[in-house]
Specification:
elongated, 10-stranded antiparallel β-sheet, 4 helices
């Protein structure tokens, strides 16, 4: 064995010896520490309770370990109390918030139910009106597809009590029924639209619009028995008087046709008569000016003159008549007029 190898062996032994000595010293220190701690915690203490009165002195013995353990347990109990108390307060606040939200939700649900009831009342009126219209037009009635063949009363099943599947609210079931009915109602309504489109020309040939263009008008005298504004006697007024409280407002043709008269009369003043299809005529009297001439073709809504105060008149107004053949009829039957204006 060479000299170098001997030196390395010696160093290795020395290192191993130092490591073994170091670990031994470390474990002895740890052991001594535990011994000292054990002695400290095992130290005997005497606790005496001396009452202010001349009572018996109470004393008991314990050690430091038991005292420290008891103190730590007391701290733990107090800390747990505050921890769970704070969590309890937080939970109570959340419960209060949820209760308030629940009350708000219930109020909204009650409002929704009221609106739902109003919806079905409106649907019931719609069903009745639609059924009448379809009957007049000869179109098949709407049938609720969810009903059996023996039940063809449109929304009848919707407004009668039915058995609902478990877990389904009545409101949801009713809305589903209404949705089904409305889907079934689309087809006949489309048929009505097609029918109206094909008959569009017919509506323009009937005096079906208001003859005064200004929407701020009022009916100064209706058709039928009235008191004459000049002599105070009862007479049959053969037209309707429209007033806008001024002269010069446009007067429109209430249906398409041909102008057959543009003239002046002591009673009617300046007036225009238009001949329409189906044996109908319309007269527009007391005009201030003309916008058409005899023989001219006019379209429904075309301006033919202006409101005036000519002839026997107590103020600016339009006297409007509708004739079918030789008969004079109430114009209100053909135009959508609110007589309370």
């Amino acid at each position: 064995m060479s000299k170098t190898q001997k030196s390395l062996k010696k160093i290795e032994k020395q290192f191993a010896s130092n490591v073994t000595h170091g670990f031994g010293h470390f474990f002895r220190m740890i052991g001594n520490l535990f011994v000292r701690l054990f002695k400290v915690f095992d130290s005997k203490l005497t606790v005496m309770v001396v009452p202010h009165s001349s009572g018996k002195v109470i004393n008991f013995q314990t050690n430091v370990f038991a005292l420290v353990l008891g103190f730590l347990l007391a701290i733990g109990v107090i800390a747990s109390f505050f921890f769970y108390n704070s969590h309890s307060l937080s939970a109570n606040r959340e419960i209060s918030a949820l209760e308030e939200q629940n009350r708000s939700t219930l109020a909204s649900l009650d409002e929704l139910r009221d609106e739902n009831a109003n919806l079905f009342q409106a649907a019931k009126r719609f069903q009745s009106s639609l059924s009448q219209s379809l009957s007049l037009l000869g179109i098949d009635q709407v049938k609720n597809s969810s009903n059996t063949a023996s039940s063809n009363s449109d929304l009848a099943a919707l407004f009668t009590s039915t058995e609902l599947s478990q877990g389904t609210s009545k409101e949801v079931a009713d809305i589903k029924e209404l949705t089904t009915y409305l889907e079934d109602a689309v087809k006949p309504i489309e048929q009505i639209g097609k029918m109206l489109k094909t008959q569009q020309n017919l509506f323009t040939e009937i005096p079906s619009i208001c003859p005064v263009k200004n929407p701020n008008y009022h009916i100064s005298m209706a058709f039928g028995p009235n008191v004459h504004p000049l002599n105070g006697n009862w007479y049959i007024h053969k037209g309707m008087d429209f007033s806008t409280w001024r002269s010069g407002d446009p007067v429109m043709a209430t249906a398409s046709g041909q102008v057959v008269t543009v003239s002046f009369d002591n009673s009617f003043g300046n007036y225009v008569i238009i001949k329409h299809n189906h044996g109908m005529y319309t007269r527009y009297a007391h005009l201030n000016s003309f916008r058409v001439k005899k023989g001219q073709s006019v379209e429904q809504g075309e301006v033919i003159g202006t409101i005036g105060n000519t002839g026997v008149s107590t103020g600016p107004h339009l006297h409007y008549e509708v004739h079918i053949g030789s008969d004079v009829v109430d114009p209100a039957k053909y135009i959508n007029i609110n007589l309370s204006k």
